[in-house]
Design goal:
Helices cover 40% and strands 33% of the residues. By secondary structure, the protein is α+β, with helices and mostly antiparallel strands. It folds into 3 domains: 100 residues, Beta Barrel (Elongation Factor Tu (Ef-tu), domain 3); 65 residues, RNA polymerase II/Efflux pump adaptor protein, barrel-sandwich hybrid domain (OB fold (Dihydrolipoamide Acetyltransferase, E2P)), CATH 2.40.50.100; 88 residues. A 6-stranded antiparallel barrel has the order 1-8-11-10-9-12. Strands 5-4-2-7 form a 4-stranded antiparallel β-sheet, with no helix packed on it. Helix 2 runs antiparallel to helix 3.
């Protein structure tokens, strides 16, 4: 009976030992084969179309969710005040032009007289005082031309500014995209710089992933990377690295005195979607980037 109990105890101990080691071995194996995956965020090109000049909005021919093409009209504002200023600026310009032309004609007349007087002066038929007086008149007339020309150019600048403001009462789509926000209404008085329309170009998409310093050195522009998304759990698609930032982003691990660890910083990696993959990803979606299967640079 003593031998049987001893054998039974040994067998029981062996079983407990096996059961205790199995989980540790499984965990070690699992850690060894765990994929090096980082999470990236989908971003799209967003354009904010702002009012260039203050005024009342007169028309907003687009609505949220509407697709627009580059050059489509997005909104207009009241032109009446600017049209009045345009009339005033045009009148000032015309008046300045007339003064300038008159001054130029006066100089041309005095220059003709000066040539004749110079010939007579050389023949001693004109006194020195007369020549000096004519010379003074000619110099004064040339100064009048300079002043009139400056006034004319200033009036041109004012009119150009008014015409520019007039053209900015209508704003057009700078790119194709989807209207994702209309923040104002017709009849509303808006100030300069107020965002009226927000456009999102869902075709111009990329993924920003933060990669820690231990892995970022292995990545170069042109490499392909496999991607997965919860939105398409059964689909594997690919992206191309187009930029690896050289500026650190933020620390993902804080140092502790007990462990004597150091902060681990991350670097932002920009990945564009491959044109071969027709995957619709929206801004803010999370995408898994498998760094263990990065391809060769193209």
């Amino acid at each position: 009976m003593g031998k049987k109990k001893m054998v039974f105890a040994l067998l029981l101990a062996a079983c407990f030992g096996a059961s205790g080691c199995a989980p540790r071995e499984a965990k070690a194996t699992e850690a060894a084969v765990e994929s090096n995956i980082v999470t990236g965020t989908v971003e799209c090109k967003e354009v904010y179309v702002r009012a260039k000049i203050p005024g009342y909005l007169t028309d907003i021919p687009v609505a949220e969710g509407q697709e627009v093409a580059k050059g489509d009209l997005l909104f207009t504002s009241d032109q009446r005040d600017i049209l009045v200023k345009q009339t005033q600026a045009s009148g000032t310009l015309n008046a300045a032009k007339a003064v300038m032309e008159k001054a130029q004609a006066n100089v041309a007349l005095l220059e003709g007289e000066y040539t004749k007087y110079q010939e007579l002066y050389e023949l001693e038929a004109v006194a020195q005082d007369a020549m000096d007086k004519l010379t003074t008149q000619l110099e004064a007339a040339k100064l009048d031309v300079q002043a009139a020309t400056s006034q004319y150019e200033a009036a041109q600048g004012v009119l150009a500014e008014v015409n520019l403001n007039l053209s900015q009462t209508a704003q057009y789509a700078p790119c194709s995209g989807t209207v994702t926000l209309v923040s104002s209404s017709v009849g509303e008085l808006v100030g300069s710089g107020t965002t009226i329309i927000s456009l999102t170009d869902y075709e111009d998409r990329w993924i920003n992933a933060n990669v820690d310093e231990y892995e970022v050195g292995k990545l170069v522009v042109g490499q392909t990377v496999p991607l997965t998304s919860k939105a398409y759990p059964d689909t594997n698609f690919h992206g191309n690295i187009v930029n690896v930032s050289k500026n650190p982003d933020f620390a993902v691990k804080k140092s502790t005195n007990e462990l004597n660890d150091q902060d681990v910083v991350t670097y932002q990696v920009k990945i564009t979607l491959s044109g071969e993959d027709d995957i619709m990803l929206y801004p803010g979606m999370l995408v898994s980037v498998n760094l263990d299967e990065v391809g060769e640079a193209e």
